[in-house]
Amino acid sequence: MTSLSGKRVLVIGAGGLGGPALLTLAAAGVGQLVLVEDDAVETSNLNRQPLFQEADVGRRKAAAAAERLRAIFPSVAVDVRDERFDAGNAEALAAAADVVVDGSDNFETKFLANDAATRVRRPLVHAGVLRTTVQLLTVAPSGLGGCLRCLFEAPPPPGSVASCSQAGILGPVAGFAGALLAAEALRLLAGERGTYEGRLFTYELRTGRSRLVLVRKRPGCLACAGRQVLGSSAPAACDAPAAPAGSPA
């Protein structure tokens, strides 16, 4: 815990993925958490977003999440950024962190986080959920594996992935994904190689089946070379998978 007290983690999103990750990282003793979130709490969030309660509906997520974290872990510094993670702030936020945790809910942000973290050479942990499926991928500057754009050059086309309202998300699945995000981030903070570095992990709760797919560097990947133009247009998806569901991996 002593070594973690001097670490700074950027967490993108405080919802179904970011919320459990924030709680776990704070409990582990991470000294500073930078929380980027630009949404408001809705009733539909409460089944899978543990930082919020019914009284928070309508409040800004960033403020409500920080308030809860500070109440439980007063020694943890929470830097609140009630703003969208976008091309204007992505590089600076990533560069100031020891590890970047992507708990965002849309493909545009996931690809942007990938591009920014690879450009400033910061380790990044992606996660996503849809229905009862979890996906996780760690991208690290060690060069031992590929990045999100090595797996998929661009976000999926509009309409190819079901939205949250169409497909739904089981609350415990989001919690499991958030815990995996935190566990992987803690390994990286400790100076260890990430369990899922260069490997896409998929777990299906209904069947209990999991798989690991090796993600190799793609020749000519602009993100790995630090030359990818930050950001890309993509449809919103709720707690979107780290890689487009149903696509070859």
Automatic annotation (TrEMBL):
InterPro entries: ThiF/MoeB/HesA (IPR045886), ThiF_NAD_FAD-bd (IPR000594), Ubiquitin-activating_enz (IPR035985). GO terms for molecular function: nucleotidyltransferase activity; sulfotransferase activity; thiosulfate-cyanide sulfurtransferase activity; ubiquitin-like modifier activating enzyme activity. Residues 3-222 form the THIF-type NAD/FAD binding fold domain. SUPFAM superfamilies: Activating enzymes of the ubiquitin-like proteins. One of its GO terms (cellular component) is cytosol. Gene3D superfamilies: NAD(P)-binding Rossmann-like Domain (3.40.50.720). PANTHER family: ADENYLYLTRANSFERASE AND SULFURTRANSFERASE MOCS3, UBIQUITIN-ACTIVATING ENZYME E1. This is UBA/THIF-type NAD/FAD binding fold, MoeZ/MoeB.
